[in-house]
Design brief:
single chain; alpha/beta; Spore Coat Polysaccharide Biosynthesis Protein SpsA, Chain A; 7 helices; 10 strands; 30% helix
Length: 222
């Protein structure tokens, strides 16, 4: 069984997904599986992915467009690894991302980690560097959305796998899941080095209204 299961939803990502997958293939840590769920793409995303297919890559396809939350949850149901890592289809991992982050988690006995990252534009130009705080708890994350999905690694030996599930909201489902996890964990811990690039694409939807609604619901249940 692989040590790490990498979860990747894709939708109309033909322009980016090859580079993203190759950043997984180039990892210095090799004991992983990559589970890709295509959310009924209308472009040539699947054609690009199939050209890269190996026995370490599992490809699933939604019959209709269901959203990133549903796609990630679908991949999670078949994930075999002790560690769960997330990667979006237009983001990039540094070559030693998994190796460094897993060593960090083992040395510090960490269940939930994330890292600093570079925010880049569609031409791979750095917009800014986002530094990971040393640690984040529930209260901090309510006020500061600092965790980027493609930097997250979770240890299912320390976290109930049933908690690793994203709610059915259209955006910020990742932050909503982190908050649920931090209801059960004291902290998520930040790795200081930039281990990923987050691509800021044009015309992305603002998630503040949906996220705030979800946060209000959580707070009412505390």
């Amino acid at each position: 069984m692989p040590k790490v299961s990498i979860i990747m939803p894709v939708y109309n990502s033909e322009k980016y997904v090859q580079k993203t997958i190759k950043s997984v293939f180039s990892q210095s840590f090799k004991d992983w599986e990559l589970i890709i769920v295509d959310d009924n793409s209308k472009d040539d995303t699947l054609k690009v992915i199939n050209k890269l297919k190996t026995n370490k890559l599992t490809i699933l396809k939604n019959k209709k467009n269901m959203g990133a939350s549903y796609s990630r949850n679908t991949a999670l149901t078949i994930a075999k690894g002790r560690y769960i890592a997330f990667l979006d289809s237009d983001d990039i991992w540094e070559k030693e991302k998994l190796e460094k982050q897993l060593n960090f988690m083992k040395e510090k006995d960490i269940a939930f980690s994330f890292s600093s990252y570079k925010r880049v534009d569609e031409k791979d130009r750095i917009i800014r560097i986002v530094d990971a705080p040393e640690k984040v708890n529930f209260s901090y994350l309510l006020k500061n959305v600092v965790i980027q999905i493609s930097t997250v690694v979770l240890d299912t030996a320390k976290i109930n796998k049933e908690l690793i599930k994203m709610p059915s909201i259209k955006t910020s489902e990742d932050t909503a899941m982190y908050l649920e996890l931090l209801n059960n964990l004291e902290y998520a811990y930040g790795y200081p080095e930039c281990l990923a690039k987050y691509t800021a694409r044009k015309h992305s939807l603002s998630s503040n209204k949906i996220l705030n609604t979800f946060l209000e619901r959580i707070c009412m249940n505390l």
